[in-house]
Automatic annotation (TrEMBL):
InterPro entries: ITPRIP-like (IPR026250), Mab-21_HhH/H2TH-like (IPR046906), MAB21L/cGLR (IPR024810). The lineage of its organism: Eukaryota, Metazoa, Chordata, Craniata, Vertebrata. This is Inositol 1,4,5-trisphosphate receptor-interacting protein. Residues 1-20 form the signal peptide. The keyword Signal applies. GO terms for molecular function: protein kinase inhibitor activity. Its main location: membrane. The keyword Nucleus applies. Belongs to the ITPRIP family. Residues 404-477 form the Mab-21-like HhH/H2TH-like domain. It is a single-pass type I membrane protein. One of its GO terms (cellular component) is nuclear outer membrane. Keywords: Cell membrane, Coiled coil, Glycoprotein, Membrane, Nucleus, Signal, Transmembrane, Transmembrane helix. It comes from the Eukaryota.
Amino acid sequence: MPVGIFRVCLLVITAIVNHPLFFPKENGTVPENMEEIIQKMKEREESLRLEQMRLEQEIADQEATQKALEKAASVVEETKEEKVRWDMWTALSMVIFLLIELWRQDFQEGNWQDIGGEEDDMAVLGKAFKGVAFPNKAVLASFYEKRILGTTGDMARMREMVEGFADDLLEALRSVCNRDADMEVEDCMGVGSMYENWRVRKPFVCDLIVPFAPPEPYCFRCQTWCSGESFPPDEQGYGTIKVCRADEDVTGCICDKTKLGEDMLCLLHSQVNATKPSNEMEDLLCFKNTQYLDADQVMKWFQIAITKAWNRISHKYEFDLSFSLLDSPGALKIKFRSGKSIAFNLTPVVQYENSDVYFISHFPRSNLAADVPSSTHWFLTFAVYERRFIHLVSKTLPANACHVSCLQILSFLHGKQCSLTGPSGLTNYHLKTVMLHLLQARPSQDWAPEKLEARLQDMLKFLEKCLHEKKLYHFFIGNGKVPAELGFPIVFQRAEPLNLFRPFVLRRDVYRKTVDTFHEMLRNMSALINEYTVHIPLAQTNGICKESL
C-alpha cells in the first residue's frame, strides 16, 4: 500500500515539474507554434470564406441562367402562340378576301349591267340637269323624220358603191402580190355605224376591215392581255402577234436558235422545213430583231400594195384614188371629176384564233385614247360581234323599235355640240356602248317607237352616271350574259371588265372638258333640235317639257 501511494505521488510530482507553465523562459517555442497555427487557421478561414463566396456566386449565376432559360422558353412559347394566332388571322383574312372577291365577281356578272330595272337607278346626279327643256314626242318625231331619215337612202347607195370598188381593188392587190412570199389578203367586211344604220353626221365614211395571213409555212400566234400573262393596266385591250412556222412548237426548237454542225441533223425538222425566212419577210412583218408583227411595217406594206393595185385597175374608173391620211394604212378618198368625193377606210386586221374578234393595226384615235404601248401591240376590235348582237336583238324588239333612233339623236347632238365648243373625250363608240348596255338590260317592249322620249332620257341619265363614276364598261369583255347564239369567245367573257373611261382618271383636263361639253349639250338640246324641226302647231309644242331629266 505505501509503495502504491509513493508511486502515485511520484507520478504527480513528475507531471507538475514537466508542465510548460512552470518554465516559460526555458521553453519559448510553444507560443511561436501557436501563432503559426493561429495564422494558418486564419488563412484557412479566409480561403474557406473565399471558396464560400465563389460557390455562392456560382449558385447565383446558375440561378440567373436558369431564370434566363425559363424566360426564353416562355418567350418562345408566347411567340408560338402569337404565330398560331397570326396564322389564324391570316387564314381568316384570306377567307374573307376570297369571299369578297367571289361576291364582287358575282355582282359584276349579275348586276354591273343591270341598270334598267328601276327608274331610281337612273337618278340624276348632276345639277346641270335641273331645268333642262326636253323636247316632247312630237318635236322628236319631227326632228327624226326631217334630219335623220333622209340620210338612210344615201348611206345604202354609198355602201353598195364602196363595197364593189373595194372588192375590185383587193382582187387587184392579190394579183400584184407574191403568193409565195407575201401576205394573203382575204375578203373585206363592213363594220361600224355605216353598217349598223345609225350614222347621221356627214361626211359618211365606210369602215371596212381586211383580214390577212402570212404565206406558208408561216402562221400567226396571238396573245391577249387576258390569256394568262400579266399585262400592265395601260395594255389592257391589246395583244401581240407572233410570226411562227406552222410546224414550230410554241416554245420553239433549238435548231432555230443554235447553229448545228454540218454532220448534225435536227430530228424534228427536216432540211426542207429548215429554211429560214428571208430578210425581206422579216422586215415586212416583224419588229426589228423580234418575231412580233409590227403594225407600222404592215401599214407600209399595205399602202404600197394598194398603190400597185390601183395602178393596175385605174384605167377602168373615171375618178382618182388617193390616201387621205398617211398615218392610217387604208384611209382612202375617191375624187370624182364633178368635185364630189367619197371617203372610206380599208384597214388590215388579224383574226384571233377561229373567232370574229380581230387585231386591228390602226384604230381611230380620240382625245381620250391613250398612246399605243408600241407598234407590236395591236388593239382588239369586237365590231363584228357588236353588229351581230344588234341584229340579233332587233329580231325580238317591236316593229320600228326606237333603239337606233335614240343612238342617232344622241350622236347628232353630241357631234353638233363638239362642233360648237370643240372635241371632248366622248366618242360615238361610247354612245353605242351605252345603247348596248340598255338593250340588254331593258325588256323588249320598252323599245316600242312611242317610247323614244323615255329611252333617250335613259341613255342620257346612264351616260351622266358613267361620267360621274368615271366607269363605262366594255359591253362584251367580262359580260357573262352575252347570248350563246353569237358564239362569243369564252376567254373574253371570263376576263375582268374593261373600263373604257379609265383614261378619265389619269387625264383630269380631258375629263373636265368632257363633262362640261356634256352639260352644255343638255342645255342646248332643245335649241339644237328645234333648229332642224319643221313648224309644229302650238297645241303640240305646248307639250315641251321643262322638267329635269
